[in-house]
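note to self: dont lose this again. the chain is below, predicted strucutre after it. 253 aa total, dont forget to put it in the shared folder this time
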Amino acid sequence: MALARAFYKFLKKRKSLMKRFLLLTEVGKKLVPEYRYSWPHMDWYNDKAFNRYLKQFDELGHFNTDRRHMVYQLMRLIEGVSGDTVECGSLEGAGSYLIHLMNERSGKHARWHHIFDSFEGLSSPEKGDGSHWEQGDLSVSMQDVGSNMGAFDRYSLHKGWIPERFPDVEDKQFAFVHIDVDLFQPTFDAIEFFYPRVNPGGIILCDDYGSSLCPGATRAINQYLASKPEKMLYMTCGSGFMIKGQETAAQLS
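---
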């Protein structure tokens, strides 16, 4: 701890952000040589509205900031697409808050946002889901999510294990679907149900796609899309997305 404080003081003496960053990366390369750094001079780091959102959920400076920003940007792609939005697996509601925030800024569509979650954490992982997760992980109460969504009124909470509450919206069409349930079976159930209900130009985003911690989720998406013209596009921040009706080239091996 004393060494960390001393290093912090040493960095603070370097007034240039770039010099501090380069020094930090040199130390990081020694400690975690496999890690890949990104440049710190991104304009979106100074997006005040977005940073206010991150602070609200105590995520400013944490690992998910770039993934949140991609949701922020992908929501802009559906401005001309009709349909509601949905999130499967809400955790504390930060993702749903951002999606619904963008819904309210839409000038063309009055969307309803649907949140599906057990509010009891993950179901029991299967063998193909890897060893990272355990049953009950990531549990957040429905009351906490409702409290975090308190600024909005055009949303619904659907409590239950996926896919048992999906019939609640079987007559709906969607413009944006966010799947974040980590495991094979609920991921497969989610894309199987929502894919036919996403309007052309709509987006399906899988938060866990391409994560070594969630091999089951990646396998579920690939398995379902194997016969479809669309394929998932990896995002460098993690996750993957597809645009309904947009044929996608096969992944390079």
